[in-house]
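# nightly structure sweep
# worker-07 picked up a monomer target from the shared queue
# config: single-sequence mode, recycle default, output format = structure tokens
# input follows
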Amino acid sequence: MSTRKCANDPRLGYNEAMQELYNEADVENALRQWVSAYQKANPGKERNLLFLDFDGVINTYREDNSREMFTGRRSNMKFMDVSDEESMKNLNILVRKYDPEIIISSSWRYSGLDYCRDYLYHCGLMEKARISDITTTGEMAPRHEEILSWLDKHHDFSNLVILDDIYMAELAAHQVMTRYPSGFDKDCLKQAKKLFAKGPIV
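# output follows
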């Protein structure tokens, strides 16, 4: 799937000419084709992906006088724990049940994969959780386009769920949309389970 439709008409304004243009049906067709090819090459195997935002999902920035600066084990970078305990517990429930590979799509990824790993594990993410990658750190684009760009380069998956408080446009069918200040609460956990429980995208 080509994720960029070039617009060379000089009459178009800059933003209109440069924006990423998608069609929801085309996106779903591409996802189904990639999943079908993966299943044929890996019969009986499933690979779930979880695209994870931080702020508004696991971070709720509730006031807590006990919060302190911590140094990461891998990144040696300092960070403040602003995570939500319930959201982290619910994330662990999801990870324990479906064992997804976590792809960091949050803007926190600009601090690096090791930093994000340090933060998540410090905040209580179970150690068995696989945090395998981040989306692009190039020119910032709308979040759903960054995820699509990553998927366009990695076709080896069977299902995906996106946890984010930003609307995912053409990927909305695969999104659990969280909100402040509740974050990844029990209702969102139910939605995420339902999406993973459907099995491979077909």
